[in-house]
Amino acid sequence: MSPHGGAGAARAAAPAEAGLAANAPTYPCGDPPAAGSAREIAPGVLWIRMPMPFRLDHVNLWAIRDGDGWAIVDTGLQTADVAAAWRSLVAASGALGGARVTRVFVTHMHPDHVGMAGWLTRRFDCRLWMSRVEYLNCRVLVTDTVREAPEDGVRFYRAAGWAPDDIEAYRARFGGFGKMIHPLPDSYRRLHDGERIRIGEHAWRVVVGTGHSPEHACLHCSDLRLFISGDQVLPRISSNVSVFPTEPDANPLADWLASIAKIRGDVPDDVLVLPSHNDPFAGLHARLDRLAGGHDRGLARLRELLGEPRRAIDVFPALFARDIGRDANLLGLATGESLAHLNYLVARGEASVAPGADGVNWYRRIAAPAAARAG
Ligand SMILES: [Zn+2]
Fold first, then answer.
1. What pTM was computed for the model?
2. Which residues, 6+ apart, have CB-to-CB distance to 296 below 8 Å?
């Protein structure tokens, strides 16, 4: 499971989108803070950045003044570097001024967000605030860490067209999810979509999105005109929207596109967006439009390719500008995203899927009445 936006990053550089600078996001907050420090970007709101040992090398966290302490939003991976950064942040002389952490909000279950939540809640004896599906799903996925790769997963990637060597790489890598997550607290405080929560002097509204993860909580403060978007809206990369072996028939792209429309309707355009990756930016609605447009263009290229029967691994050129190659992580991301787009077309009756005798799925465009393709 990918902790963050992945193969989709390639799409930001796709030829179809190059040169579209109009209404591009603007970045009013300057350079990011160094690991272990923090930077105030609005009254009582701090920007914190943690390192990650991946191609995407950082994640942003936020601290919100909460009475005599700080509410933290997202926590970073469980790594030695992140733990060291947290120790300096919370030290008496640290960027949080030696004040306590009052509670820990987590936008969603991916390790770069939830990784250190258990560490922080235990250290400060405070609660974890998280949506129910994210909390429960995280606990389930963490239990995979001590298991062998399941046959369902092998069947899933075989069906996508993976070669035996790639299946072996999947088996070898399986179970990494929980290694980057400190043991979760055994209870949590549930976040509900639409709920208003007072943090310090201001009310923040929970805005749930789906598609990248099942019940991703964003936080909107109309007083401060801030929108903590997590991985739901990123300025420079497109969020990973993937099908995973646990639910091979899922249609996360439909969820994702509905979430983009919902956020556009629920959150005004004049907010400063605080995303988990890249820098804080202005221009939310234009960014949402561009993300939706990117998926539309990918789907159009995919429909073209499906004039002939294709496997999931055959459609990468429709969706990714880069050569995906054989890197196991990138191949997994690209396969999951390709299946998200294929399942979307199948669910709309625009494509069919038929398994071959070897268990490999072949997708093909269905010539549908024009009315069925509209909208
Ligand atoms: Zn994520």
1. 0.91
2. none
pLDDT-derived band at 169 (thresholds 50, 70, 90) equals: very high
Residue 205 Cα to ligand 1 midpoint, Å, equals: 20
CA of 291 to the centre of ligand 1 (A): 16
- The set of residues, in sequence order, having a beta carbon less than 8 Å from that of 202 and lying 6+ positions away, is 44, 221, 223, 224
**Through-space distance between the first and last CA atoms of the chain, rounded to whole angstroms:** 32
Residue 177: DSSP 8-state: G
Length of the chain: 375
Residue in the structure block whose two tokens are 């789906």 = 210
Measured CA angle at 236 (ends 233, 242), to 5 deg: 55
Burial group, residue 320, by CB count within 10 angstroms (0-12, 13-18, 19+)? buried
Residue 352: CA atoms inside 13 Å, Cβ hemisphere, count?
Answer: 10
96: nearest Cα among 84, 88, 104: 88
Pairing of strands 69-73, 272-275: unpaired
Q: Report the separation in Å between the CA atom of 121 and the middle of ligand 1, taken as the mean of its atom positions.
A: 21
Number of H helices, E strands in the chain: 11, 15
Predicted local distance difference test score (pLDDT) of residue 9: 37
Expressed in angstroms and rounded, the spacing between residue 112 Cα and the centre of ligand 1 is: 7
* Ion ligand 1 — residues with CB < 5 Å: 110, 231
Q: How many angstroms is it from 242 CA to the middle of ligand 1?
A: 11
